[in-house]
Design a protein that fits this description.
alpha+beta, three-stranded antiparallel β-sheet, 4 helices, 19% helix, 17% strand, elongated
Length: 214
């Protein structure tokens, strides 16, 4: 908020250069009544105008249960760890065992099956793979290696869990949709630079689970 205040004050001065130090007989901004309006008084006036205005919340909220909520889309995402658990960032899974349309690879039979087995990850049993659009919504093209918001890349040290860190491997992640003209391929999103590509479903890539918050 301080940065916004200073910026607004600077803009005001740019458009009203004669204001600073100018004689002012009847100015509401002349708080000390000395007949002049100073930079400090302009900053006070801007602060007063911004009083009680809501501060924008960050887009991504760490729920402290191994998940992150995207306040823009309402989706709840699994965090990744570095502890050799089911959430480990280095785990890779297949989409299919070979049948083009059957989601019977380890991404479904091992990864999602584990997350959705009682008592279920973070208390929810409806985890799924994201659509390619949902997965790409996490890409931050203003960053690289990884191209993702800082909420998904914090304190990823060896042994850290989803409760203590947030990891993103620099590789492709599976989404659920199949390529329209290549049924044995599914869409992947890369979190090194943010590329989107299709790969054969029997190959092993990273995954990140998601669910719709109710």
């Amino acid at each position: 908020m301080r940065a916004i205040t200073v910026m607004v004050a600077t803009v005001l001065l740019a458009f009203w250069p004669a204001l600073t130090g100018a004689q002012c007989d009847q100015c509401e901004g002349d708080f000390n009544g000395d007949g002049q309006v100073t930079i400090n008084e302009i900053i006070v006036a801007v602060n007063n105008a911004l009083k009680n205005c809501p501060t924008p919340e960050p887009r991504f909220t760490d729920n402290r249960d191994g998940t992150i909520t995207d306040t823009r889309t309402g989706l709840q995402w699994e965090k990744k760890s570095n502890d050799s658990s089911i959430h480990d960032q280095d785990n890779t899974y297949t989409w299919s065992t070979g049948s083009p349309f059957n989601p019977d690879g380890t991404a479904f039979t091992t990864f999602l099956a584990t997350l959705n087995s009682a008592p279920c990850f973070a208390g929810h049993c409806d985890w799924r793979l994201p659509s390619v659009t949902e997965l790409q919504s996490l890409v931050d093209y203003g960053r690289f290696a990884p191209a993702v918001d800082a909420a998904f890349n914090t304190r990823c040290t060896p042994g850290c869990t989803v409760l203590t860190c947030s990891c993103t491997v620099l590789d492709y992640y599976w989404s659920v949709p199949t390529l329209a003209d290549l049924p044995n391929f599914a869409w992947n999103v890369d979190f090194n630079y943010g590329y989107v590509n299709g790969f054969e479903k029997t190959l092993s890539y990273s995954v990140r689970a998601v669910r719709n918050r109710s």
